């Protein structure tokens, strides 16, 4: 499967714990995005990487959230001291830098439940 | 700031009838517009996009969308709906001005239910 891969698919954690999600983009896609989707809502932008550089961050990305893409390939999203409000689907997407209007390809997401 | 509105939370249609899902947008510059579909426990799948050129855009699975600049709309259409089209549909926009960055802004989604 050459699509965007996200792991784990589901994560249940206790409030206050740290969690880390991984995203493997489509090979050779140098743009990578993280979005958050809560029940009944559309995805909300969190952050964007071009290669290893984090170029945009949403105000939604509080200081408890950190994202990395150390070698310009896979990316991780870490949430520290999780809160119940962090419960959501976390979506990763990637796109090639062929042109500015290329569509993004989404993974199946990681569903986080904070109890 | 860029924004998208999908005024209908749900659209019900009988199989074989035309399907329309509405979307309006707001941007500072020119819009790049996208439609995605989401099936249960799945990620978003790209359907079609408008960048420039012909206002009528054709996409996957028989879907098409019409860009209307004066009405700032990008409604999704399918001439004859199938039961398998039942899913959650999202409209998204990206502003072409540099200050807007690369992010997509999504609407709240419209659930489509096609009844046999």
List the helices and strands and how they pair.
The complex is a heterodimer of chains A (115) and B (116).
Chain A: E1 5-7, E2 10-13, E3 19-24, E4 31-37, E5 44-50, E6 53-57, E7 65-68, E8 75-79, E9 88-95, E10 105-106, E11 110-114
Parallel strand pairs in A: 2-11
Antiparallel strand pairs in A: 1-3, 3-8, 4-5, 4-9, 5-6, 7-8, 9-10, 9-11
Chain B: E1 3-5, E2 10-14, E3 19-21, E4 24-26, E5 31-38, E6 44-50, E7 56-58, E8 64-68, E9 73-78, E10 87-95, E11 105-106, E12 110-115
Parallel strand pairs in B: 2-12
Antiparallel strand pairs in B: 1-4, 3-9, 5-6, 5-10, 7-8, 8-9, 10-11, 10-12
Structure characterization notes:
The complex is a heterodimer of chains A (115) and B (116). Chain A is mainly beta. Chain A has no helices and 11 strands. Chain A has strands spanning 5-7, 10-13, 19-24, 31-37, 44-50, 53-57, 65-68, 75-79, 88-95, 105-106, 110-114. Chain B is mostly beta strands. Chain B contains no helices and 12 strands. In chain B, strands 2, 5, 6, 10, 11 and 12 form a 6-stranded mixed sheet that branches. Chain B is globular and about 45 Å long. Chain B starts with a strand and ends with a strand. The mean pLDDT of chain B is 93. The chains are: A mainly beta (115), B mainly beta (116). The interface between A and B is medium-sized, with 25 and 26 residues.
Radius of gyration of chain B: 14 Å
Poorly predicted parts of chain B = none
Listing every helix as H and every strand as E from the N terminus to the C terminus, the arrangement of chain B reads: EEEEEEEEEEEE
How is the main sheet of chain A built?
A: 7 strands, mixed
DSSP summary: helix tally of chain A: 0
Q: Give the CA-CA distance, first to last residue of chain B.
A: 41 Å
